[in-house]
């Protein structure tokens, strides 16, 4: 433990110096940067307990009580933590068949999730099934491209939310996948799917503009990529087509990404995409530092810290 | 886990990314700092949070108790085996019955492959847990409307592995071809201009288990999970005082 602490401190020191030496002037260096830790999951699929320890592919991995302890440990060390999820909380174990998602929402609330979006499986018990469980969630479901106005869920979901941490404004919005063909018609009813690209542009403009956000995050259940359907919208295409998103936390395709993928967007903006498999096998983590910069903006550098080895 | 500060520091420098925050209007400039592994495994070495574990415990006990609910009794094991077997006959038959009830029309055929069923029933009490083991997947019972040529493909596939099809009988020739296919007792004629209804899982209906000839068809939903259909059928049998049983009854004849 002491050794880990030492490594952590020395690494932070090294990386910090690299960045400061690279771009900051002495006045900026005098002000300590503000740090934000983003933790995230996707497609947890009712995996309350770890996978059975039976020699299967994911044997013994995951488990919400373990994840809670890991998150608590990080919260003890980091001042500013955002805990986010990218949908498909429901379906996959008897816990969902028996309790309809009640326990999933209660546990996420107790773990202090800040926001999630809606995945296709979150409709598996219909709009009524989703509505029944909403009181168990103390966190919002953000979704910008589903229009629920003709459904019993009208007015229940915001497109985005702005979080403030030590003066830093973080805009988070959600995008969902096309439901027709994926979800039984009766389960999504009159929910209208809207073009995610158009909605994402609207969100980025709103969050970068009037909301004056320093960081814009998209919780996406669109999927990382679809090799067999070249025209289907996915996170990579979204990042390439929409300016102003810093980070897409993805889901749906259960993609295990070794590292966030940078995608060059229009007007030179780079968007990072991350997705961490499914079933709570992994907890995603990205750390951001906010320098007191100019309003003109400019080059910032991202460096890499070994989260896994520090937390261990 | 390895702790190699030199390697990690080098990685930190080498993996540096350049980010341009496009239309940045806010006061702060964000800098992403992430690990070579930004997915933290939630593994066995990670201790549990006791408060969360305590919240889970009563639900766990209820799940365990419900899984132990006895739905019915099997006097003899229902096993799966290559070719026609009691387990596949049992499931394919109840698929037809349930789909017919849901869609309020007769269903000609029921198809379930061996691969679609994960474990048989042992002799004795059959619990909800046994049904979850038999059908762990969230597969929906659906209905296909298959024209003659697709039915022909189905029986060619079936004959190759001597698979039974609920609602039909056929004979496998010495070279593995189907002949004398009878659906509902009627001799099948590929040239007849009609469709046949098939009760099947959505997994198989969309081409799973190499049933690719179904892919072109549009499944009709029953909105009933196959697992639910199986559990309900066993409950109904028990209510009617009947055991869980099925047998090999010569749906596939070898020549």
From TrEMBL, chain A:
SUPFAM superfamilies in the cross-refs: Metallo-dependent phosphatases
Protein origin, superkingdom: Bacteria
Residues in Calcineurin-like phosphoesterase domain copies: 36-255
Coiled coil spans: none
CDD domains: MPP_UshA_N_like (cd00845)
Keywords: Hydrolase, Nucleotide-binding
Pfam family for this entry, one: Metallophos
Protein family: Belongs to the 5'-nucleotidase family.
PANTHER family for this protein: 5'-NUCLEOTIDASE, 5'-NUCLEOTIDASE-RELATED
Protein name: Metallophosphatase
Species annotation: Hymenobacter negativus
From TrEMBL, chain B:
InterPro entries: 5'-Nucleotdase_C, 5'-Nucleotdase_C_sf, 5_nucleotidase/apyrase
Domain of life: Bacteria
Claim: Signal is one of the keywords in the record: yes
Keywords: Signal
Signal peptide extent: 1-26
Gene3D superfamilies with a match to the protein in the record: 5'-Nucleotidase, C-terminal domain
Keyword Signal among UniProt keywords: yes
Pfam families: 5_nucleotid_C
Annotated SUPFAM superfamilies: 5'-nucleotidase (syn. UDP-sugar hydrolase), C-terminal domain (SSF55816)
Domain 5'-Nucleotidase C-terminal: 81-215
PANTHER family assigned: 5'-NUCLEOTIDASE (PTHR11575:SF24), 5'-NUCLEOTIDASE-RELATED (PTHR11575)
UniProt protein name: 5'-nucleotidase C-terminal domain-containing protein
Protein species of origin: Hymenobacter negativus
Taxonomic placement: Bacteria, Pseudomonadati, Bacteroidota, Cytophagia, Cytophagales
